Amino acid sequence: MKKVLIIEDDPIVAHIYRTRLEKEGYSVETSADGQSGFYRIHEFHPDAVLLDLMLPKMNGIDIFKKIRAQGQFAQVPIVVFTNAYVPNMIQEAFSAGATQVFNKATLTPRQILDALHLLLNGGDTAGSILQLPGSPSNASHTPKSNADTLAQLSEPTYHAPVAHGSPPPPRNYDPSLDLSSLDPIRPPQKPTPQINSDDSAFHAELHNAFVAAKSDTLSMLRKLLQDFTKAPDENARVPHLHELYRRVHALTGSAGIAGFAAISQMTAALEVLLKELSEKPKNINASTLRTVAHSIDFIGELFKLEQPGNGDQPPTNIMVVDDEILSRRAITYALEKANLKSVSVEDPNVALKMATDHPYDIIFLDVQMPGMDGFELCTKIRALPSNKTTPIIFVTSLTDFKSRAKSSLSGGTDLIAKPFMFIELTVKALTHVLRNRLVQRRLAA
Predict the structure, then answer these.
(1) Sign of torsion over alpha carbons 12, 54, 107, 255
(2) Which residue in 206, 229, 270, 277 has the fewest CB atoms around it within 10 Å?
(3) Distance of alpha carbon 246 from alpha carbon 56, whole angstroms
(4) Does domain 197-305 have CATH number 1.20.120.160?
(5) Is the model's pTM score more than 0.90?
C-alpha cells in the first residue's frame, strides 16, 4: 500500500483529500503545520507528499530545502498546491525540487489522484488522464518576461520545468508523460475529466457541505473584519488580522474543492493581501482597510449568486492612464498577477478618445497629469454612453479629504493611495471584474 503524507494547515481541506485518497487505497497521514510535517516525513517515510506552501511554523519552501538536502528523500515525489498570486514561492518550489505544482483555487481531488497515479504507478491512471505535454525538448525553455511568467502561473495547473538540484522522477516513471516538458509560455489546455459515479457523488457532497456552511462562514469573516478595523492600535490589530487571513486561506481551498471558481479566485488574492498586511502592519492604512472591507462584502455577494463551475472566463478590457511610465508599469504588473490584460496610455486626451470608441471593464486614472487632470478626464468619461457605468479607480498620492471628495464628485468609483501594494490593486481589480461578470450574467438571464 502506497503511503501519502498531506501537509496542510486547513483541517477541512486535509480531511477531504485524506478521505478521497484512502478510498483509492492509499495509506494517508496529515500534518497541520510545516514543522510537524517535516518531522512526520522521517517517521512515516511516505511514497509521496502533498504540500501546501503557505503553512504556519515552517513554510513549504523551507520544508523543501530540508527534505531535498537528505539523500533518502531525494526522489520522493512532492506535489505542491499553493496560491497562484505568489509567483516567487512557486518558482522557489520549482528550484527546490517540486515534482508538480497546482493552483489551490482550482484544484480538484481528481487532479490529485491522477497526479499521484502518474507519479507512483509508472503512468497508470485512475479515472481520467491528465493532458500532459510529451516533448522533452521544451523543458529547458524559460520565460522571457514577467508577463510570460505571470500568464503561466494563472493557469489551473503548473508543471515544473527542469531546475538545477531538482530530483529525477521515480524509476518506473514513463518519460513520455514527463511533467517537466511544459513550454512555460504556452499554458496547458484544460483537460476534459471523465467523471465516474464515485466522483459525482463526492462532488455533490462537497457542494452541499460548502453551501450549508456559507452563512456561518460569511458571519465569521464579517465579525473578524469588524474586530480588526475597531482595534485601537497596531498591536491589537495583528491577532485579528492573522485570524482573518487564516479563515480566508481556508475558504480558498474549500471553495476551490467545491467548484466555486469565482469565490476561490477572489479569496486567493485577498489572502495574499491579508498575509502581507500581517507581516508588514505599517502598510495598514485607510486604503488597504477599505480594500479588505469591500472584498469581504463582495464575497458575500458571490455567496448569494455564484454557482459552481470552472468554465473559461471572457478576457478583460482594462485601461491604465498615467503620465509616469513606472506607475503604468506597476499597475500593469499588478493586473497581470490576476491574468487581467490591460492597455496603458500616457496622454489623457488619447485616453478620452479611446474611451469614446471602446467600452472598458475598469479604468485606472492618475490625478496629476499634464493637459488634463484625472478628475476632469473622469468627468468627461462619465458623459460617454460607452463607459457611463465603468468602474473608475484613481491611483494617486493625493489622499486628503478634499481629493477624495473631488474624486467622488467627478464620478470616480474608488481610490488607491500611492505608493500602493501590488496585491491591493490586484484585489481591487478582481472585485470589480468579477462583480461586472455577475451583473452581465444576470442581464443575460
Answers:
(1) positive
(2) 229
(3) 10
(4) yes
(5) no
